[in-house]
Structures are given as C-alpha cells and as structure tokens.
C-alpha cells in the first residue's frame, strides 16, 4: 500500500509508532500538530505545525492538500472530520472508553473512582453513557455518532478505535507517577483498596499504534467499524504495581483496606495512575482480533521495562508527602481496627466438599 497519509497529533505516546506503521506500509506521512513539543521519531517525515482545534485554523493549515488516508488522534475530531471530508476518502479516528455507560466521568476530579459498576468484558455494542452525566463524555459520544453518520452518508470510509489507558514513555501524563514516586522515595508500603483486585484495560503505545496500522492495512475489512483495543494480557491493579516495581528492583509490602474506609479519590496511588477505582473496567478486544488479526507487538513487561527510565525522569522533584502522611494515618487506623476486631472477623470458615467420598464400597447406595 502506498500514497499520502496525514497523522493529526503524533507527538505523544503513540505518535512515533503510528508513523512507523504507516511508513512500513509505504505511506508518505505528514504529521499535523501544534509544534509545542516533539518526540524522537525513527523516520524523517514532514511536520505541519498549526492548530487542529478550530475550523478556521484547520482550513488554513490544510488548504490545497489531500491525502489517501487521514489518522486523527488529537485535536477536536468533530471539527477535523468536517474539514477532512473533501481531503481524504479514508479516515481512522481515535476516541476512548469513557463513552461506555458508567466507565469514567471525566469532569469529576477523581474520574477513575466515579461511575460504575460496569459490564466486564464490555463489547463495542455496550450502551453509551446516559446523556447529561458528564459534559465531556457527552461531547465524546456526539463525536462518535457524528463520525458514524458521516461514514453512512459516504463522505469517507471510517474506522474508529476506542483507546483505554495508553501507557509508556512520551505519555503526556507520565508513566505511573504515583507508583514510581513511591519507588524513588523508597516507600516500603503500597496501599490498595479491596485487595487491589480491580481490572482496567491498558494498552502499550506500540500496540495501540499497531491496531491503527492493521486498520490502515485492511481498509475493506475495517470500513465502518468501531474497535475496542487493549493488550493481550491484562492485570489487576496490584499485579500491575507489582510488575512496575519488579522492573525497578523494588518490593512493596501491600496493605489492603476496604474501599468504604477511604474518601473517594483521596489517595491517587490507589487508582494506579488512572486505574479502575472500585470497579472493573475491562473491555473485550475479540472483535479486532477476529476481524483484523490483532496481536501484541510488544508485551506489557517489555514496555514497562522500556518506559521506566523515562518515567522516573518526568517525576516532579518534590515527594508527595501529604499523600504519604494520609497513607500512614490510614494504615494506622486500619491496623487498630484489625487489632480490636480481628479475632471476631477472622475465624476460619469450614469447607465441606458437596459430593460424598465413601471409604469402602459398602458406603455407597444401591438402586
């Protein structure tokens, strides 16, 4: 496959790897972004600096240009798609899982703790969030529906991907700052709620880019489709923290507390940097595996190891001492509760197998 491709965004976590995917397919790539920061790229591609947020700036920036493919990962997609209708026949866009009912309330300061419970292994047909619950989520849903409508009207052939949490280097939010700060500061304990058993879909940046590459490579199969994306292997919050810590050579002692003991969102580390909060938030990726043949190009363990040094470099120099103080107070409170109530709450339950296990033939019944 060859031709010209426009990548809107391209200078954050997934951008360099999307460029790799498109160049490998023979595209002449233009990266359209604001130019406020750059990231290392393997290929020397054209950069078009402008503002992909407003109709007037987009129209000015893209004037007189057309592409065989446009990939929109940044900016205001609902405005960009209108400006791209006469400039491309093929459009791949990126949205997110917050459009799903109960998933995330993005205007809530502690969004990972808001909402829920939600369907586990939510498919692409899982219901949208109720209108009016969250203004930003409303806009995301409107954008997704606008894209589908434009595809149905024949303006372009659309593929839309719903990103979960994208992790790794070059992420604008850093790489697991709450976990890495505690490792840097040699904190011996890590507090989790409800055993840290919450599951939330994550995807390594190169894997997210590979999903886009598959959609670009298979335009007929991907036309008109919405896909959830995520790594092949997923982790509970505690498993994820253990994975990050193991690559950093750190061994946490975990203290598990019930969620009802903690004010919602009071301790950011409990979310595992945008983790699941109280509820699972796990999507099904069966559709993109079946239709496009998706498989990870990098394992979570490999990408965590690759991202650690960059993540430590992004940490603010100040330690989150207020969070540590709150954690220590919580640990002391929970320890006192266990000391006072422990014996009454920890009596062992007796288990009896539901089937009989006769010791000799005579113990069995005869018909």
Walk me through the structure.
This protein is of the alpha/beta class. It has a domain at about 90-335: Rossmann fold. It is built from 11 helices and 11 strands. The chain has helices at about 15-25, 55-60, 75-85, 135-150, 175-185, 205-215, 220, 235-245, 285-290, 300-315, 320-345; strands spanning about 5-10, 25-35, 45-50, 70, 90-95, 155-165, 165, 190-195, 200-205, 225-230, 255. Helix 1 runs parallel beside helix 6 (about 205-215) and helix 5 packs across helix 10. The longest helix has 25 residues, at about 320-345. The model has no long low-confidence stretch (mean pLDDT about 90).
Mean of the pLDDT scores?
89
- Helices and strands: which structural class? alpha/beta
Named CATH topology of the domain at 89-337: Rossmann fold
Distance between the termini: 72 Å
> Beta-strand level of the residues, as a percent range?
5-15%
Q: Architecture of the domain at 89-337, CATH level 2?
A: 3-Layer(aba) Sandwich
Bulk shape: globular
Number of strands: 11
**Name of the CATH class of the domain at 89-337:** Alpha Beta
Computed over alpha carbons, the radius of gyration is 24 Å
Biggest sheet descriptor: 7 strands, parallel
Q: What is the assigned CATH homologous superfamily of the domain at 89-337?
A: NAD(P)-binding Rossmann-like Domain
């Amino acid at each position: 496959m060859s031709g010209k491709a426009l990548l809107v965004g391209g200078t954050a976590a997934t951008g360099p790897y999307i460029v790799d995917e498109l160049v490998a397919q023979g595209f002449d790539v233009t990266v359209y972004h604001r130019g406020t920061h750059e990231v290392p790229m393997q290929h020397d591609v054209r950069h078009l600096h402008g503002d992909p947020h407003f109709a007037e700036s987009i129209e000015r920036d893209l004037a007189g240009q057309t592409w065989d493919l446009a990939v929109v990962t940044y900016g205001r997609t609902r405005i960009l798609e209108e400006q791209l209708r006469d400039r491309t026949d093929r459009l791949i866009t990126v949205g997110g899982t917050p459009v799903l009912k109960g998933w995330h309330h993005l205007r809530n300061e502690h969004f990972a703790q808001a909402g829920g419970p939600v369907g586990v292994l939510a498919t692409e047909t899982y219901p949208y969030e109720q209108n009016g619950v969250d203004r930003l989520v409303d806009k995301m849903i409107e954008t997704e529906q606008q894209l589908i409508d434009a595809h149905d009207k024949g303006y372009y052939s659309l593929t839309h991907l719903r990103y979960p949490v994208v992790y790794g280097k070059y992420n604008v939010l850093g790489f697991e700052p709450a976990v890495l700060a505690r490792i840097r500061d040699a904190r011996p304990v890590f507090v989790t709620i409800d055993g840290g058993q919450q599951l939330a879909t994550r995807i390594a940046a190169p894997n997210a880019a590979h999903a886009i590459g598959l959609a670009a490579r298979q335009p007929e199969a991907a036309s008109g489709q919405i896909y959830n994306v995520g790594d092949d292997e997923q982790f509970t919050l505690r498993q994820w923290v253990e994975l990050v810590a193991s690559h950093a050579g750190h061994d946490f002692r975990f203290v598990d507390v019930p969620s009802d003991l903690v004010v919602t969102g009071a301790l950011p580390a409990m979310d595992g940097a945008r983790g699941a909060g109280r509820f699972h938030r796990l999507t099904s990726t069966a559709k993109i595996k079946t239709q496009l043949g998706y498989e990870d190009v990098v394992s979570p363990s490999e990408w965590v190891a690759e991202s650690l040094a960059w993540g430590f470099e992004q940490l603010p120099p100040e330690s989150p001492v207020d969070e540590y103080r709150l954690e220590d107070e919580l640990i002391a409170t929970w320890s006192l509760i266990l000391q006072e109530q422990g014996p009454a709450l920890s009596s062992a339950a007796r288990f009896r197998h539901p089937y009989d296990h006769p010791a000799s033939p005579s113990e069995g019944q005869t018909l």
